[in-house]
Specification:
Elements lengths: L2 H13 L5 H20 L4 H7 L12 H15 L3 H12 L11 H6 L5 H13 L14 H13 L5 H11 L4 H9 L6 H22 L2
């Protein structure tokens, strides 16, 4: 799905008082997938081009997420060439020894990698029917993996809303806001400051949305 389609889903959700839980879920799941794509690896040229085509917000749409989408588009338009973006991503998340940030739930919750939060996450993933793919090298509590997993949970109609809310609360909401805040202020970030700000606004939205429907 293109970024333009994702933003159109948000426009439809925010402007339609009769939006269904399914359409709201589609918009949320697609946004999780977009954040995952931006954080799993350096963004592709196609993804960066797609960001520049995020629609302009309407004059009456001054909500927080509308402004966040606009800021992400502006960052995409101002982003440097792909090679510089690769260096930015490397400095932030890989580095020599380690990057400026460690985008893992265990680290943010305990100060250690592959600690108890990862073990609890693996237990919940198993209960939900998710299996680790052999080609995946990063631990499951990487922020990109968690966002992609959340997208799949939302899209899977067999998974109850209460389980969706619990997964977010236990494995994302408890630390991702701080990670995105750190990313938005990271020394090595230029383009990724906008990603951090966008992710932070989305986590705040998810907290409100999931509690509202509790």
């Amino acid at each position: 799905m293109t970024v333009q389609a994702v933003t159109q889903e948000w426009v439809n959700m925010n402007n339609n008082a009769d939006a269904t839980p399914a359409s709201e879920g589609q918009a949320r799941a697609s946004t999780y997938s977009l954040i995952a794509a931006l954080l799993a690896r350096p963004p592709s040229d196609a993804l960066m081009q797609s960001l520049t085509r995020i629609p302009q917000r309407s004059n009456h749409d001054d909500g927080t997420m509308a402004l966040a989408w606009e800021a992400l588009r502006d960052a995409g338009e101002a982003a440097p060439i792909a090679e510089i973006l690769k260096h930015e991503y490397h400095d932030l998340f890989i580095g020599i020894g380690r990057g400026e940030l460690l985008p893992f739930g265990s680290w943010y919750q305990t100060g250690f990698l592959m600690d108890r939060p990862l073990s609890l996450l693996r237990d919940d993933l198993k209960r939900l029917g998710f299996e680790r793919q052999d080609e995946v090298k990063e631990p499951e509590d990487h922020i990109a993996a968690l966002c992609e997993t959340m997208a799949m949970i939302i899209a899977d109609q067999r998974i109850a809303f209460a389980q969706q809310r619990a997964f977010f609360r236990d494995h994302i909401g408890c630390w991702a806001g701080q990670f995105f805040s750190d990313l938005a202020q990271a020394d090595h970030a230029t383009f990724y400051r906008a990603v951090g700000s966008f992710g932070g606004h989305f986590i705040q939205f998810e907290n409100r949305y999931l509690e509202m429907l509790a």
